[in-house]
Amino acid sequence: MEKTRTVARMAVVLLGLALAVMLPEAGATRWTVGANMGWRPNFNYTTWAQDKHFYNGDWLFFVYDRYQMNVLEVNSTDYESCNSDHPLHNWTRGAGRDVVPLNVTRKYYFISGKGFCFSGMRLAVKVENLPPPTAAPINSSASPTYHARIIVPAAFAIGTLWDAFIRFW
Ligand SMILES: *[C@@H]1O[C@H](CO)[C@@H](O)[C@H](O)[C@H]1NC(C)=O
Ligand SMILES: *[C@@H]1O[C@H](CO)[C@@H](O)[C@H](O)[C@H]1NC(C)=O
Ligand SMILES: *[C@@H]1O[C@H](CO)[C@@H](O)[C@H](O)[C@H]1NC(C)=O
Ligand SMILES: *[C@@H]1O[C@H](CO)[C@@H](O)[C@H](O)[C@H]1NC(C)=O
Ligand SMILES: *[C@@H]1O[C@H](CO)[C@@H](O)[C@H](O)[C@H]1NC(C)=O
Any idea where the Phytocyanin domain is (predicted)? Predict the structure, then answer.
């Protein structure tokens, strides 16, 4: 009797710890653009992005040849026409590894300058607000979106990071 109660209490504590560890991951997926292909010509970033949900608080991670390409944020007109003459923001830091915070709920448009946009190096992402129910731990085990939102992206992020690690170091 006493023993079962202790076991049950320990299970609750462990579950709480597990949730505490997982929750900070909830709003923060770091997407490696193009996954293990990175940011390069002749890759369709529209196809790469179309089955993904980008949430406010996520990041994009661009990995590329720093001697050739760059990462420029432009408006929709310049995205369509591959015009890099007046970027809204130059995210290029020089190492060929640029992290862009997606911290506003809106559409973002990125291109590479130096002519590479014309070879397919352009990406449009629509950043959404996090779906509200994910914040309620009491109900969370009943909610399928909770698992999809936290465990799958976490596993995916680790996988893509590992891919990037293997490929680029
Ligand atoms: C990329 O794929 C999208 C659909 O996923 C298609 O509409 C578009 O034409 C493709 N772009 C190129 C340059 O092939
Ligand atoms: C994008 O910027 C260009 C140049 O500043 C401007 O001519 C164009 O109207 C802008 N497009 C949008 C959709 O704001
Ligand atoms: C973007 O910033 C980098 C690093 O500061 C700089 O070398 C590069 O010339 C800039 N590119 C554009 C198009 O402004
Ligand atoms: C989003 O991030 C950029 C770059 O770190 C920062 O300059 C900007 O103030 C942030 N915006 C918001 C709304 O947090
Ligand atoms: C749990 O979710 C149900 C509906 O799915 C709702 O009726 C109930 O109030 C929620 N309980 C808590 C503690 O949020």
Answer: 29-129
Pocket of ligand 5 (CB under 6 A): 136, 138-139
Residue 130 pLDDT = 83
pTM: 0.69
- Residue 74 corresponds to which tokens in the numbers above? 């432009």
Q: % helix / strand / coil in the chain, to the nearest 5?
A: 45, 20, 35
Q: What single-letter DSSP state applies at residue 145?
A: H
Please indicate whether residue 103, judged by its CB atom, sits closer than 6 Å to ligand 4: yes
Of 2.60.40.420, 3.40.640.10, 3.90.1710.10, 1.10.10.10, the CATH number of 27-168 is 2.60.40.420
